[in-house]
Amino acid sequence: MRRVTTTDLWHHYGRTRIERDRAVPETFHWIWSQDGGPGSEALGDLTGRCVADLGAGSARQAAHLAVVHQPGKVVAIDASAAQHAMASELYAHLAPRLHLVHADVVAHLRAAPDAYDVLYSVFGAIDFTEPRKLFQAMSAALRPGGRLVFSTLAHYLNGDPAETDVVAADIPAKTPEGEAAVIRRWVLQEHVWTKILDEAGFTEITIDRLPAARNGPRIADTLLVTAFRRMN
Ligand SMILES: C[S@@+](CC[C@H](N)C(=O)[O-])C[C@H]1O[C@@H](n2cnc3c(N)ncnc32)[C@H](O)[C@@H]1O
């Protein structure tokens, strides 16, 4: 029987990649296939800005921003001990401009009112965390007028349409010991994201649907969502 667990279900993610590629990426991609589409310009001018990556994984995108742009600070947050360890192994030397944090993003953001100019996520915590709770925390942690950008699936990987309400799907996963488990994932239609962002205090919400850059199995369209914290 599958079960929901507090075990680190992201223990394996990205591990094969770091065996062959440990460099700071030269490019930043939002789309699912990570090989085209818009880049970091979607985040605006980052000079001197305080930026956070929500569900940063091994912090590849955050490392790129820290090296290629001139942010005040990029904080790469991830709740997985394995992902945080991988990020530390690869990019700890980029401190203090890159700051690696092992935490749940909701807890981290709730403890940081008005702290950030820009929040972003690339198929990260926003896909795997109850969105109404997370968006409230994001809104409180962004300064008024601050920018949020995230990429998320436009539909399920098997082609099924995204949800018409705030409903999660159970995605099969494995514990580090090999036991079956599930990860909750929110795959929502554009109007659902817009509604819950608006309710959490965001404005100027735009959503672009970006096609996959190539054909093949497990290829998906991406929603690229941009919004700003409403001025009080
Ligand atoms: C699919 S991976 C994406 C990682 C990275 N953004 C990338 O593009 O490679 C999703 C990541 O989100 C993290 N995550 C999910 N929910 C989280 C939460 N509530 N707080 C912090 N990290 C979370 C997971 O631990 C995992 O590393």
Secondary structure layout plus pairing:
Layout: H1 15-20, E1 50-54, H2 60-68, E2 73-78, H3 81-91, E3 98-102, H4 105-110, E4 116-122, H5 125-128, H6 131-141, E5 142-153, E6 168-174, E7 180-186, H7 190-199, E8 202-210, E9 222-229
Parallel strand pairs: 1-2, 1-4, 2-3, 4-5
Antiparallel strand pairs: 5-9, 6-7, 8-9
Bound molecules: S-adenosylmethionine (SAM).
Strand segment count:
9
Spatial order of strands in the largest sheet: 3-2-1-4-5-9-8
- Helix amount: 10-25%
Sheet of most strands: 7 strands, mixed
For the record, the count of structural domains works out to 1
The small-molecule ligands in this entry are:
S-adenosylmethionine
Q: Determine Rg (CA atoms, Å).
A: 17 Å
Strand content: 25-35%
State the end-to-end distance: 48 Å
CATH architecture: 3-Layer(aba) Sandwich
**Low-confidence segments:** none
What's the order of the H and E elements?
HEHEHEHEHHEEEHEE
Structural class by SSE content: alpha/beta
Query: What's the overall average pLDDT, rounded?
Result: 94
Net shape: globular
**Can you identify the CATH class?**
Alpha Beta
Q: Count the helices. How many?
A: 7
Q: Which tags fit this structure?
A:
binds S-adenosylmethionine, Rossmann fold, two-stranded antiparallel sheet, 232 residues, alpha/beta
Written description of the protein model:
It is a single chain. With 232 residues, the protein is an alpha/beta fold. It has one domain: Vaccinia Virus protein VP39 (Rossmann fold, 3-Layer(aba) Sandwich), CATH 3.40.50.150. It is built from seven helices and nine strands. It has helices at 15-20, 60-68, 81-91, 105-110, 125-128, 131-141, 190-199, and strands spanning 50-54, 73-78, 98-102, 116-122, 142-153, 168-174, 180-186, 202-210, 222-229. Helix 3 links the parallel strand 2 and strand 3 (98-102). It is globular. The N and C termini lie far apart (48 Å). The model has no long low-confidence stretch (mean pLDDT 94). The structure holds S-adenosylmethionine. S-adenosylmethionine binds at residues 10, 13, 55-57, 77-80, 83, 104-106, 122-125, 128-129.
